[in-house]
Amino acid sequence: MTTKQREDRRLRPRRRGWLALMPLVLLALLMAVMGILMNDFSSVPMTIVFLFTGIASLLTLRGYSIEERVRAFSHGAGSSDLLLMVWIFVLAGAFAASAKDMGAVTATVDLTMRCLPGNILLAGLFLASCVVSLCIGTSVGTIVALVPMAAEMSARTGVSLPFMVAIVVGGSFFGDNLSFISDTTVAATRTQNCTMRDKFRTNFRIVLPAAILCFGIYAFMGFEQGVVSANAQGTLHLWRVLPYAVVLVAALCGMNVMMVLCVGTLLTGVVGIAEGAYTLSGWLLSMAHGITGMGDLILISMMAGGLLAVVRKGGGVTYLVRVLTRRVHSRRAAECCIASLVALTNCCTANNTVAILSVGAITKDISVRYGVDKRRAASLLDIFSCVVQGIIPYGAQLLMASGLALVSPMQIIPNLYYPMLLALSAILSIAVSGRNKGQTKK
């Protein structure tokens, strides 16, 4: 086959898009089967699951040589966006380990527990996650800042560690969905040509009930279960709180998350050595242990990136768009189509911003044809992309949280109340809004 024929073949639309989606089906099946066989979903070896699925995905690319298939997989595993996330993982590992070893996490939790009664710790942690994420506009930054504190609180109070981590992960998507500086908000509003303020107002009416209900559930659980706050004993090392305080303030001021982690890690060394928590060599070893502890997380992220790149190259996303838009005949159906389209695309990309950008144009066309307000279309894109991103075990947020807390993503997912409540609120919103406005706009 000539070079020109190969190029022509690449440019032709893929007709076997359903085949490109098979690796994602296999991924879910492997997780389920391994979890059942091991009788413990938290013990499922994610690296092995993605290894098998990645190899299987190469078989779905019909008409390509082995070298071309591996090259496509490698291109996805080494994409610039993914490598940026890998550097964040590395810095987060260094900061988390050095902060823990010098006593920053313990001191911060001591201070928190002296200020808050035990029975509102759960609700307070969720509220803090919502506020921080709203201010910094990134779920990953919120998780990096608060998951180590959640892990320490779990050890102090006896509350399940996956449950405490899930509170932070859920709250982190509150701001990711609403913040004016969130990349998902920017992508949703730009693709639909509406203002951030209008999209925020539309979004807020859907998000607020879910957030209030989730806060109420955590408050009730705190009082019902009698969560005990183990108050700090002895000396309160306020200086050791400084690295966490600076990280939170810097994040709230809008500093880049990588710069925030660099500053925080440097402060753990300065304060830790000054306080006698460790020596210079101890600080360096602590950072090294934190970075190496992120090894599995980085491997899983890269294999997931390669897998999803193969799915896209095989026409999986194009196939989803074609199937989901085939039978749209009303406004309500159009809104359901938009929600399903961005949700399934997010499953294929594991990145909510990329998912929004991928289906933004087709969403705009659907909105115009069937009379969906552009503000509402932007809102649905943002909400359902964040819902899916918050519950897929191979998403950056759950991988980051599981790496910092040393728990499996499969343990965290059942405890993610806020994303599930948000999905329910958005689905009810579609059902109610379409009741009296179901006529097709030609």
Helix and strand topology:
Blueprint: H1 3-11, H2 17-20, H3 22-38, H4 46-58, H5 66-77, H6 80-101, H7 104-115, H8 121-136, H9 139-157, H10 161-178, H11 183-192, H12 196-225, H13 242-252, H14 257-275, H15 280-292, H16 295-313, H17 316-324, H18 331-349, H19 352-370, H20 374-391, H21 396-405, H22 409-412, H23 417-433
Helix pairs in contact: 3-4, 4-16, 5-16, 6-14, 6-15, 6-16, 6-21, 7-9, 8-9, 8-10, 8-12, 9-10, 9-21, 10-12, 10-20, 10-21, 11-19, 11-20, 12-20, 12-23, 13-14, 14-15, 16-21, 17-18, 18-19, 18-20, 19-20, 20-23
Q: Please mark out the parts with pLDDT under 50 across 5 or more consecutive residues, or reply none.
A: 7-14, 436-442
Distance between the termini: 46 Å
Share in β-strands: under 5%
SSE string, helix = H, strand = E? HHHHHHHHHHHHHHHHHHHHHHH
Report the average pLDDT across residues: 81
Largest β-sheet summary: none
Structural class: mainly alpha
* Backbone shape: globular
How helix-rich are the residues, as a percent range? over 70%
Cα gyration radius (Å) = 23 Å
Number of DSSP-assigned strands: 0
Tally of contiguous helical segments:
23
